[in-house]
Amino acid sequence: MRKLLSASMMCADLTNIEKDVRKLEAAGIEYLHIDIMDGSFVPNITLGFDFVNAIKAITDIPLDVHMMVDNPARFIDRMKLDKGDVICIHYEADNDAAGTLARIREHGCQAGLAINPTTPLTCLEGFIDDIDMALIMTVTPGFAGQKMFDGAQQKVTEARKLLSTADRYIPIEVDGNMSPENGKKLSAAGADIFVLGTSGLFIKNKDMTVSAEEFRAAIAE
Length: 221
Fold this sequence. Notes:
alpha/beta; 6 helices; TIM Barrel; 19% strand; 221 residues
């Protein structure tokens, strides 16, 4: 699978969001990653459903909605998304993850399942037939400025082996401290989609197109 970049929109200039979206389009970014936090599953509150729908209305870049919320099924219908978009829920936040994943697909979107750094990969085993993407968190969700946890590369390697048992290719997305150096390691381990924030794309005094090109060059090595 071709390696894809997903821009973390919480790092964009929220006072001039359309300008940044146009820059991301020019940089060839494949997904816009929108973090939704509820102050419960994680301690922060970030972007919301009105933001998701507003971004959807101004760009053709598919959205990659990361729901860091408890009981995410209650929010699926709040977003005006389609078959090119992904809604990713957390295994740890849903007592009926299979049901929620099915509801996401019924909504017309691709379904993703995320796991935290401390969550064992075995939790993915029962959902291989239900997901279109697996998200491996490389930091604890909800906290900025963290280092990638030491076992991230090995976890991605093992996740790729586990997902290879599926009858189709399931991409692995990685999220957290995604610098070009870390991206290179995780790409070699089997990651396919890279969520880029201030470590890899939204870098002060650097054009986003340049940052994206540098990241692509790193993961291609």
